[in-house]
Amino acid sequence: MTLKIGVIGTGAIGREHIKRISKKLAGAEIVAVTDVNQQLAKQVVEQFQLNAIAYPDDKTLIANENVDAVLVTSWGPAHKGSVLKAIEHGKYVFCEKPLATTAEDCMEIINAEINYGKRLVQVGFMRRYDKGYVQMKEAIDQKIIGEPLMIRCAHRNVSVDENYTTDMAVVDTLIHEIDILHWLVNDDYQSVQVFYPKKTRNALETLRDPQIFLIETRSGIAITAEVFVNCKYGYDIQCEIIGEEGIVKLPEVPSIVVRKDAQLGVNLLTDWKDRFVDAYDIEIQDFIDSVSEKGEPQGPTSWDGYIAAVTADVCVKAQQSGQKEEIILGEKPDFYKNLQQA
Ligand SMILES: NC(=O)c1ccc[n+]([C@@H]2O[C@H](COP(=O)([O-])OP(=O)(O)OC[C@H]3O[C@@H](n4cnc5c(N)ncnc54)[C@H](O)[C@@H]3O)[C@@H](O)[C@H]2O)c1
Ligand SMILES: O[C@H]1[C@H](O)[C@@H](O)[C@H](O)[C@@H](O)[C@H]1O
Predict the structure, then answer these.
(1) Which intervals of the chain form a coiled coil (predicted)?
(2) Labelling 324: which of 59, 191, 229, 270 has CA 20 to 30 A away?
(3) What is the CA radius of gyration of the chain?
(4) What pLDDT, in 10s, does the model give residues 205-254?
């Protein structure tokens, strides 16, 4: 069976996913696209020579019976509306992060999915499919480093555009660490406090950059997470978990080593699209395969989207208060407790 996919939002990542589904991955085809910028949606059909219809909006795209599943790759604030419409029509939905921009909105999605009675939603936390993080998780689960005690990580972008605001360091950037870290160590977050080091002169006046988040988990693991989005030198994702008996570290991206002009060097990446390209491929292929073969997605759930949103809300509060703020999660609904997950 070929899964027929409709894409809502044909901007940067929407196009990336369209390209991989139509040119690289197996088992799916793009049959529909839409974007508030209709010109852009039409261009994408031409650019990738898709056998797809450009619809005027998400509502008509989702309602079309030729569409089995939708990819929501629009701006964060538009996600909730499209995801709820997809659930209403019983369509599978892969939603890029964030699932919704507030914890309340994520809860509305969770309730809609539970009421529908079947899992339909996967959230685009692609790091869970990255080989390096997967190996770290295996090592931690096998207790190779004993109990994790501390985590040090960094999320650095070369630069950001003028629309990037201080809270986006959380909702757009740190959100990836928020998802991956609790998954890696099988723990829940307890509290967060934010520190602002000396500001780089390369950031706009209104943007606090860099920022340091000190997060504690329920079992007492101390996490220091640096977000530095005008670091200039490269796209750099670091993660190191220090345990009772050893350390696991995220591998560097492989690169050839060049000896030249009395120097020894390796190249660093500069763009997020390249850093997680394999993870995106595996993630979307897993979505296609699991809904086609098992009748439901098996990647990150709406509940994972909710955990991220609750934590992000508190991180933004901590950015503003400067105080240590408590992170309180509700009880995980039974619906999500025994799901088969990748
Ligand atoms: N997983 C990742 O690593 C990753 C990377 C980049 C972006 N993202 C997420 O993907 C989403 C899109 O990011 P982007 O970088 O592609 O942004 P973008 O601005 O390049 O593209 C978003 C597109 O959505 C369209 N759009 C907005 N509202 C819409 C609506 N209601 N209906 C249809 N189209 C709509 C816009 O016109 C735009 O073309 C964001 O939520 C972002 O956080 C995830
Ligand atoms: O939307 C992007 C994307 O999620 C990248 O992975 C992240 O590094 C950027 O900081 C963020 O702005």
Answers:
(1) none
(2) 229
(3) 20
(4) 999 999 999 999 999 999 999 999 999 999 999 999 999 999 999 999 99
**82 CA from centroid of ligand 1 (Å):** 13
Q: Is 230 in the pocket of ligand 2 (CB under 6 A)?
A: no
Q: What is the pTM of this model?
A: 0.95
Closest ligand relative to 16 C-alpha: 1
Ligand 2 contact, 157 CB (< 6 A): yes
Helix then strand then coil, in percent of the chain rounded to 5, is 40, 25, 40
CA distance 106 to 237: 27
pLDDT tens for 155-175 read 999 999 999 999 999 999 999
Which CATH architecture is the domain 3-127+277-302+330-337 placed in?
3-Layer(aba) Sandwich (3.40)
Q: Compute the distance between CA of residue 268 and CA of residue 255 in angstroms, rounded to an integer.
A: 8
Q: Which atom of ligand 2 is nearest to the CA of 173?
A: 10
* Ligand 1 site, residue 126, Cβ cutoff 6 A: yes
Domain ranges of the chain: 3-127+277-302+330-337, 131-270
